[in-house]
Amino acid sequence: MSKKYIIIALLLSSALATSQTSAGEYVIKNISINTEYADFGTSYFGNDSIVFSSPRSKRSIVKNIWLPNSQPYLDLYIGSIENNGEIAGKHKVKGNVNTKFHEATVAFTKDKKTVYFTSNNYYHNEVKNDTTGVLRLQLFKASVQKDGEWTDIKKLPFNNDEYSTGHPALSEDGKKLYFVSDRPGSFGKTDIYVVDLKEDGTYGEPKNLGAPVNTKGKEMFPFIDGDIIYFSSDRENGLGGLDIYACKMYNTTISKPLNLGVPINSPNDDFAFIKKQDKGYFSSNRKEGVGDDDIYSFLRNKPLEIECTQEISGLVKNKETQENLAGVEIKLLDKEGNIVKTVVSDENGLYRFTVKCNTAYKITGDKIDFQDDNASITTINDIVEKPIEVALALAPEIVENKINIENIYFDLDKWNIRPDAAAELDKLVQIMKDHPELNVEAGSHTDSRATEAYNNRLSKRRAKATVKYIVSKGIDAKRITAKGYGETQLTNGCTDDVECTDEQHQMNRRTEFVIVSDKKEDDTK
Fold first, then answer.
1. Rg of the Cα trace of the chain?
2. In terms of pTM, does the model score above 0.70?
3. Which of 2, 116, 364, 404 has a CB 3.0–4.6 Å from the CB of 396, allowing a cystine?
4. CB atoms within 10 A of CB 386
C-alpha cells in the first residue's frame, strides 16, 4: 500500500506589539529653561544633572542639526535636576568641547568618566567639509574630570568626512554604543547603528539595526533603557513629523515599534526621549511651545508594557493529492511539552497562532487515522524563513483483526525496546488512541536457539516490555495484554537442527499485534 502524507506549512509573519499608550499615562510640562530658539537633546549626567543643547548667541544654527537656518549655533550646557522636573543652574560644560560650530546630544558612561557627543566636523582647529562642501556631523569621545571638565577629546574611528555620524546612546552594560548615521548602506535618510565597545578600548564593526527599527525615512535620537530602545522616526502612520517609538530588544530579535502616542507625540517633531524610573524628558517643536525646539519633562503614571508577538500561519495539505485538508488538530507546545494553544484547520486547510517572539515551540498535527508528527520552531521577528513542514503519515490499516504495522524486533537474548521498535510501537499507540474500542494482544516470540523453557521465559519478558512501553504512552493497561509464545511460531525453517544466518534468526525475535474482542489473561505475570 502506498503511503499518503499531510503537509503542514508554517509561514512566519512579522511581530505585532500588543500594548498601547493612552494620553492618561503621561503628565508633561514645558520647563522654564527653554528659550525662543532651539533647546533640546537632554542626557543624564548621573542622577542629579542634565546635559542638553541650547543656543549661545544670535548666529546661524541648524534647526534639527542637519540643515542650517537663521538661529544661533548650539553649545552643550549642564544643569541640576529639581524635584518638579525643572533644570536649574544652567551653565556651559567645562573644557574645550564647545566650538564655533554645533555640539549636541551626548551619552555618559555609568561611572561618569567618559562622554560621547555629537559635533560638526571641526577638529584641531580644522574644518573638514565633504566633497560637496557640507560640514557633516561626527562622533567624539572625551574624558570627564572630577571637576566636570571635558578633556582628551578624540574623534571616533568609524567617522567619515563624507557622511554624518551622531546621536550617541550607551547600552545598560556599557558594552555597546548606538548612534545615528546616513552612511552608505542605510535603509533610509538616517538609520540607527550599533557598535561594540571592546575592553581594550577599540571598536567593533558598526552594524545597522535593520528592520523593524529602521525604515526608508529618518530614525534618530536613540536612548537605551535596559532591554528597551526608544527612538524617533518619521515613518508612515505616525502622528506627524518625528514621533517617539519604543522597541523591546531580545537576543536575536526586536519587537515591532510601539508609538508612545499622545501627549508624548504630536503632529510636529517629538524626539530625544530619556527616562529614569517614571520620570524623564523629551524634546518637541509642537505649536504650544515657547521656542523652536523645547525641552519637556514628563511623569509616567504606569510602566510601559511591550510584548513582542508574531503570527505563525500555515496550510494543511494532503501531500500526495495536494488537496487542502480540513479538521486537522494543530497543537502548539512549549519547550517543556506543555500545550499552549490548540486550533483546528478550517475548511480551506488554514490555521494560525499568535505566539511570543524569540521563543522555542513545537508544532504537532493530529487527525484520526493519521500518525502524529511534529516539528520544532524558534520564532523570530520580521524575518521570513522557508516554510517548516510537519508530515502526518496515514495510519496503518487493520486487516483481518491484525494491525498492519511492521513487527518489532529484539536483539539476541534481549528484551529491551530498540529505537526502531519504539517507532513502530508509536504507530500502534496512535491507532489505539484514535480507536478507544480496540483491545490488543502483544504476542512475543524468540528464535530457536537456547532451550524451549528459556525461550518461553524470554518471550514473556519481551511481551511485558512491549506492554510497558505502550502503557507509558497513555494507553489503559486494561486494553493491552501480553502473550509469550517462545519458539513455537517460527516464521521460517530455522529450527534447532537447521543452520541459519543471524538475519534469518532475527526474523523470529519479534512481537506481533492482533485485535482481540475479549481481553485475555496476561501470561507474563
1. 35
2. no
3. 404
4. 9
